[in-house]
């Protein structure tokens, strides 16, 4: 079997030591919640129809631009509560709103029937921060939706909650709904999910590519029109940036994680940090990694020992896909070079410990890919698929290298792995350029201004509708 990392247990045992070291360096570091949310692109464009896609412009201000949300009642509706990107992003928005004094209520439409450790942990994390957690069904949810100043639906699937719970009250709530969409997969385009989409106050989408895809797909497949759509890129929190910019903190984390998984300091680590699933492309990454090892042998190249790390494993689920990954590793006899790490909120230790991030999402790619900008903050080059939001983040040849999706991308990615393994200076230069791009575009203050403009616009539209 491929090596299953035991890094989580040592990290927990030595966390107090690490925290003491980090605080002794006057660094405020938070690993459990990556509270960020940034937009980063000042472009805006529109098509020739009335349906426009907007990117808000930055407004410089010293005060928190979300302060106008103080005392506002905001209902957040998530389709699930898990460690996946959508729910975590909505939680971060909840904390930002709580930070300015908004009253925030969270409901999860689809909850496990059996007790679930992750759900329990995340709910209590929100309760500790003053976010109220209600049942998705029942009169309390209906009353909150009717009283709320703003309702935010998270992901397309959350649309099922409207008819199932609000029923005849749906028309009263739609004018104050901001629908936050992250999905790029075709199976989300179902009438039962998105039939109310044209009537909400606005849609917020994480990348231009995804916004265009939704506009075209809803029109062609469902015959419906998108509402006013805002493109808002994500970004890195101040806490994560403080870790990324602290060389001593990174050194502590790097040494600890590498020791835990049995990798030497001089070895090279190429890592994917995503939930393990076929859409994230861990299978193709492992094939590329194996091919890169063969290329190095064939060309007799002198490179440090190379390792592949997959952060996002969950063997408790015993998925067919993860078993396939582990069987491939055994078949190719690369168990000593491949390490599986359980899924976690704490990405900073792994970003500090690796040398290159691989973003290998398939099909239409990532809607945005938060981990990509987080890796760039740690001065890591990115090897990404030429699809989706990754193309709006990675500058090919400057901050990383792009390769095609699918099987045709396997050899291309393998060659890119070899390029970065054999050219230390190029790898380091790309990492520095990526960090500069993050500082220019992907920081919390960029997003704070822009998300504020989106919420102001939606609130104004809701108010105008109520008055009329």
Automatic annotation (TrEMBL):
| Keywords carried by this UniProt record | Glycosyltransferase, Membrane, Transferase, Transmembrane, Transmembrane helix
CDD domains xref list: GT4_PimA-like
Query: By its UniProt entry, which Gene3D superfamilies does this protein fall under?
Result: Glycogen Phosphorylase B
Q: Which residues form the Glycosyl transferase family domain?
A: 256-437
According to UniProt, the name of this protein is Glycosyl transferase family 1 domain-containing protein
What transmembrane ranges does the database entry give?
A: 15-33
Show the PANTHER family listed in the entry.
GLYCOSYLTRANSFERASE
Judging by the UniProt lineage, the source's domain of life is Eukaryota
Q: Which InterPro entries match?
A: Glyco_trans_1, Glyco_trans_4_5
Among the GO molecular function terms of this UniProt record, one is: glycosyltransferase activity
